Amino acid sequence: MSTSRRDFLRNSGLAVMAGGAVLSTEQWLAGADLENDFKKKFQSGSVPTPAAPSASGSEDSASVIKDKRLEVPTLVTIFLRGGADALNAIVPYADDHYYKVRPRIAIPVRAKRGEPVIKLSKGIGMSDIFGLNPGMSAFAKLMEEGKATAFMNIGSPNGSRSHFSAQDNMERGTTGDARVSSGWLNRYLMATRKQTDAPLRGLCAMNLLPRSLRGEYPVLAGQNRTENMELFEDLYAPSNLINQTARDSANMEKGTRLDDLPTGEMKRRQLTSDWARDVISDSGTNAVVRIKALEAAMAQPSTGNYPNGGLGNQLRTIAKVIKANVGLEVAQADYGGWDHHADLGESDGKHARMLKHVSDSIAAFLEDLGTRSEKVMVMVMSEFGRTVHENGSNGADHGRGGMMLVAGGPIKAGKFYGTYKGVADMVGDYQPVYTDFRAVYAEAVFKMFGYDPFNPQALVKMFPEYKPKPTDYLDYLNVMKAVKA
């Protein structure tokens, strides 16, 4: 193990929960090369059973950030809802077949109107095959600077082309296992929770909490405000949860919110009023703390040149929370409207304009964060790609293999990632899925947070039905380094 890696592990303060999968500093230092161990799990196609956790893996040492001056890594996911077209974003301009199957909507090398495909420098791997949609000039600049990259032919082995099912599976981190009800980001938060958690480990900047952040671990959603916080705090004060009329039964029976129902349901389930009072009080108090932390974070200045629109506004909010150093680890933003069955367009079409908004928003977000972006990664995904052939409405229909984009400090940039065998490589009329989307997730939580998502001893299983393949391992991230606040 190199000195730099050893120093990183010593300074990171990574530790394990009792029975959990977050490695202690000692366990990291004892390993010959944990990155290779992680890679071997993909190569073997199975998840080996690890040795029992060391004595250092007690809850007393379960602080991911022992030094409060350290900034936590942050993973920000962006979901492009509707099935974003990959071939008109990551453009295979060197493939003649691309122009044969998309005579009206392909992004041209020389545009008759609008702008041609953006060609990247020769130093970027596969740039002789792929370019970027002209709307993605800001993302192209990030790629040239070594701060961003893209994956091709990535998706779910499930094969569903239903928006609802495909989005739901991707956000739960499954291929359709109905027993997994929580989101993959929430499972990460739950698996690494501790009594001294920061108030805002998870956040979404939308009013509706996305599936990826739903689960047992409490996560805030929407634009919460504290104008009436005194009333809210009073509502959840334990002393005020007694003798409040909360309901009227069909027989006009009065009762408090903590009284049992006439049927004795609470007694049957062994739920006491004291237990209920504690749950309500704790939940309310925790919500108050989180909302106050969010409102304090929103006072942070914004320096990024964000475009107008929903995604730009969401990323501005997330950037403020990150800069406030309140412990934000995972966040999600959404951008809908990618179901382009018609009028997808070429260089000057709707799809290009939407890609520009995504590209400009990400660039503004990283600019806003400044040096703080060294420990932040943006991950962009969509539920599936589109058909290879254009349809009769100048659009493309639901496909399979799609794309993912990543940007930020820990990226191993300099090339496009994924297996690509040409536009003519089709399953039906779809680009195939060569890389399971969960491989990108797994590498992110391992290399950003030191969390082993494949540890069978973990109380919370990150990807219970996923068996990694050798081709899934992308090695697109550097192990996160500590950054002083």
UniProtKB/TrEMBL annotation:
Short name of one Pfam family: DUF1501
Highest taxon in the source lineage: Bacteria
InterPro entries: DUF1501 (IPR010869), TAT_signal (IPR006311), TAT_signal_bac_arc (IPR019546)
Region (Disordered): 43-62
NCBIfam families, A to Z: TAT_signal_seq
Protein name: DUF1501 domain-containing protein
